[in-house]
Design brief:
Length: 206
Amino acid sequence: MPQIKRETAIICMIDDLLRGSFIRTEGWNPSYFSTDLGDISRVNLVGVLISKEPSGGILIDDGSGRILLRSFDTVTFQDLNIGDLVLVIGRPRVYNEEKYVLPEIIRKVDQKWGAYRQLQLEIIKKKIKKKRKVPETRVLIKEEAQPINYFQKILGFIKDLDAGYGADIEEVKKRSGAPNAEELVGKLIEEGEIFEIRPGKLKILE
């Protein structure tokens, strides 16, 4: 397995992600959001926890928008309360057209962080305005370059084959028709889109 480079966590506002387009890549290159700030595969956010969802995730708001944080670990959000200002470093994702963040690091921070983050963002925005040269058709070109999205096919087969106890991994790989199906399944597990509920059985994150 090739060594995976750890991507830089980009400081941005939630609205930057919400207005961005999710680009899923094949192979070992990380999927990312194409935004006005550039391509973002890891994100650094600061926001206020405004609600705890029935699904186990939490919703944060940074004044520009709201986004859901999801985690496989049930204790990730255990010590957080509504009203806390939190710093989040994680990977932005999309599931059923809903954008969310899979946190790698999350912790409560002092309210002074909110003002400091605003200064950071103002500096970043000014630099982007000076350097912006991104063509309007950039996202369309990337989407047209991927006529067969094996990731979506694999996710679809897992959902179809899962009768409640997970989908058989070998059957999913066989039905996908992907020449590198095992690698793609491994990538989806790594990115948190699916998980192995028990050996040989796959389940989609709900």
